Amino acid sequence: MERPCLWKLTPGLLILIASVKCCAGLKNDDLGMKPNFVLIMVDDLGIGDIGCFGNDTIRTPNIDKLALDGVKLTQHIAAAPLCTPSRAAFMTGRYALRSGLGATGRVQVILFLGGSGGLPPTETTFAKLLQKEGYTTGIVGKWHLGVNCESRSDHCHHPNNHGFDYFYGLPFTLFNDCKGGEGSDVLVDVQMKLRDLTVLAGLAVFTVVFVRVVGLFEVSGKVIVSLAVLWVLAFGVWYMPFRLHTWNCIIMRNQEVVEQPMVLETLTERLIKEAEQFVETNQHKPFMLFLSLAHVHTPLFISKDFAGKSKHGLYGDNVEEVDWMVGRMVDAIERLHLSDRTLMYFTSDHGGFIEDSDARGQKGGWNGIYRGGKAMGGWEGGIRVPGIFRWPGRLAAGKVIDEPTSLMDVYPTLVNLAGAHLPKDRILDGHDLMPLLEGRTERSEHEFMFHYCGQYLNAVRWHPPGSAAVFKVHFFTPNFSPPGAGGCYDIGICMCHEEFVTYHDPPLMFDLAADPSEGNPLTVDTEPRYAEVLQRISAAVEEHSGTLQPAAPNQLSWENVLWRPWLQPCCGTFPFCSCAEGNTSSAAAATAA
């Protein structure tokens, strides 16, 4: 048979062929296909803990390849050096104090699932905006932004009320109470005082009863009853709120408690399977998955396959297991042929907890050359975190960006890519990263960044236009001191107020471009722009401060943080809350609360 010549084809067929050829060269978003998002956040990971950011002894090949195949941000900054405020800022694209999650005193994170504080329902997360654009949204892992407001069933702070169709994981976080033999790290001094009060009240009851029985003195029954009631109250106030293993260490699927207390030995496999099944279930429509890992927050727990495998003990084992989980997620995306339309992101919520150690050795992370760590205010070690974006075909492989960027930038980046509209009724502090990631601009939109210690402005960085310098001034710094001297080492977490900080006048000044370790403060004699830097930062602070009014209700007040039995999530009959997750199939396919 004679092969047809092109001129013999019909005009309609020619148009069809041309259309196919044209469309074959278009990107997915040009075809009206919204990109998927997989966001991976590790808890308490130090920037120096992974290979592509300088570690040469802990094995992280999957994370390293993620960076090799994508874009690495070397000056990626968390909005706070602690979990709750950092995650609130990440979710909302706004500094945490705008949501009422900037602490004024000792309590800087949510301490009890039975408290009423959390991410206010009035906040608009990126998940809410993506949901409106037809995305199926899910979070697997840690939340730590509250659950209830007024009753056990209102779920006002719950992920399902903040734009996530599906939630499986820890509504709280890992605390030492979640693992036997690790002690407690929630208001330990308060627990001890209440315990001592309970013991004293018990001794008083015993003494009075003994005196009456042996007839030494005449004691009325009313006195005995009153003392007994006092002992019962003291015992209740001490024992009930601090049953933290039961109250805080739980697993929820959407709004149902499915495990209380949670079993750490199987947690890793369950989380990664839930994440994989969420992706598989939603592969044919736009989805956003936030995989919020329980690792590497203490207490450290590990699967048997990774125990004793690293050169850095249990902590190194944890980091290498994190790398394995990242590899599992990348494999799932590639196996389903979703790579070219999926933006993957890897980070940590803040820096490593360098103060966390015991007789067995270091339990927290390493922040490389950067000074300070978790809960140490605005020092770089507590807020500079890994930042990796991977999107084959859209982002150049192996690109490294040294410009200041923020976890808050993820918000406008996702919203714009999804075709949604950013809220007009509130101030956003993040900026769309795509122009920077794609090389359409070389400068970050963050000329200034404001670093908070609780509710207090701790430090400010300034990246002057047309300059490689990144100046940073500290108005105060947390007091570090050896055990017994009243500093961070005594209470485990640095505080941000009164006698717990040192104010600097003039402020400490560093050029992070030349001195990223913040080891050599600049002076008027060593820095020609010294006066200009202080003047420009002072003006920026005044302008920024004017945007913070009216102040949001404080979600971390004692009233909102302390445990209330009627707010406590529970499976079974309260207070006998106990259940174990069965071998039922995952509900990751469910997309509604």
Structure notes:
With 593 residues, this protein is α/β, with parallel strands linked by helices. The chain has 2 domains: 33-186 and 242-577, Alkaline Phosphatase, subunit A, CATH 3.40.720; 188-239. It contains 15 helices and 19 strands. The strands form 4 sheets. Strands 1, 2, 3, 4, 5, 6, 7, 8, 11, 12 and 13 form an 11-stranded mixed sheet that branches. Strands 14-15-16-17 form a 4-stranded antiparallel sheet, covered by helices on one side. The protein is globular and about 90 Å long.
Count of separate DSSP helical elements: 15
End-to-end distance: 62 Å
In the CATH scheme, the class of the largest domain would be Alpha Beta
Beta-strand percent range: 15-25%
Major sheet characteristics = 11 strands, mixed
The CATH superfamily of the largest domain is known as Alkaline Phosphatase, subunit A
Radius of gyration: 27 Å
Q: What is the residue-mean pLDDT, rounded to a whole number?
A: 89
Q: Looking at the structure, what is the overall shape?
A: globular
Stretches with pLDDT under 50, minimum 5 residues? 1-31, 583-593
Number of domains: 2
Structural class: alpha/beta
The number of distinct β-strands equals: 19
CATH fold-level assignment of the largest domain: Alkaline Phosphatase, subunit A
Percent helix range: 25-40%
